[in-house]
Write a structure and sequence with these properties.
The protein is α+β, with helices and mostly antiparallel strands. Helix content is 37%, strand content 23%.
């Protein structure tokens, strides 16, 4: 019997965005079939379902020994999609093993936006000395190799020369600041209608004006 194809595997902006979410906040079960996506943001889980045209129920779960179920989770069982994710470089227990993924370059900005919405942040803060507002875009990962691939791709394919990677204990952080951060935001939010986490887009919007 042919496996049921629940997720349409076809590269497009929304599909690439969902892959970015899976890469950061998703999990491939060791059973070779199930994919889980977990987030504190209900909006993000609902958007994830929309991107992949899923109608699976959204549940609640706790993490790290906590009793309170603060996280929203959606699970999909799809061997075909699971196999596709393996083929592009994802894997179970991926956090520290992530490396280069096979993402079509035309959809890389959407993929990156998904990563930032999953494990990144967009912040404005006042410089401790000048008191001038400073913009930072960050992406965190337990795998420095994954962040280096992101950094090199943005540098080589999209001519963004700045940025750096900080390593703190078991977590590395890719950081873009000032003009580089603005250029990165304009790369990711190329229209007002892209799927994204709205609270992060709201921070980015003042910097998207030409």
């Amino acid at each position: 019997m042919r496996p049921l194809r629940k997720v349409k595997i076809e590269w497009c902006p929304n599909f690439a965005y969902a892959i970015g979410l899976i890469t950061t906040d998703g999990n491939l079960s060791i059973d070779g079939r199930h994919i889980n996506f977990t987030s504190k943001d209900l909006e993000l889980v609902e958007t994830f379902r929309k991107c992949l045209y899923l109608n699976n129920k959204i549940g609640r779960k706790a993490r790290g020994g906590e009793k309170e179920k603060k996280y929203h989770v959606v699970q999909s069982g799809d061997k075909n999609f699971y196999g596709f994710l393996l083929s592009i470089g994802l894997m179970p227990t991926k956090s520290k093993k992530l490396n280069k993924l096979l993402i079509p370059i035309q959809y890389f900005p959407d993929f990156l936006r998904g990563c930032i919405d999953g494990d990144g942040n967009i912040n404005i803060f006042k410089h401790p000395e000048s008191r001038h507002p400073q913009l930072r875009v960050r992406l965190s990962s337990a795998s420095p190799l994954f962040l280096d691939w992101i950094y090199q791709t943005v540098k080589e394919k999209f001519s963004l020369k700045g940025g750096w990677i900080e390593t703190k204990e078991d977590v590395s952080v890719l950081v873009y600041a000032k003009a580089d951060a603005i250029q990165l935001l304009r790369l990711m939010y190329y229209t007002d209608t892209v799927f994204c986490l709205r609270r992060k887009q709201t921070i980015a919007k003042p910097f998207l004006r030409v």
